[in-house]
Amino acid sequence: MVQPRFLNTTIGDSAQDSKNYFGAKRAYFNFSGSLNNGLFSFLVQTNFSDSYPLLDAWAGYHPNKNISIFFGQRMSPFNNLSMQIMEYNLQFASRNNLSQNFTESGREFGIFVESKFSLGNIGFKPTVAITSGDGKNSFGLSSSDTDQGGVKYGGRLNIYPFGFFKGDNEFIGHDTYREKSSKLMIGIASSLNQGTSHKVGEGHYYEDAPTDGTFMFFDNSGVFKLPNYLKNYIDILYKYNGFNFLFEYVNTAASNLQGTSLNSAGSLLLEPTQISQYLVLGNAFNLQAGYLFKSDWSLDLKYGRSYYEFEKVNSILQNYDSMGAGITKYFSNRAVKAQLLASYVNFPEISQNNFLNIECLFQIKF
Question: Which pTM does this prediction carry?
Answer without folding.
Answer: 0.93
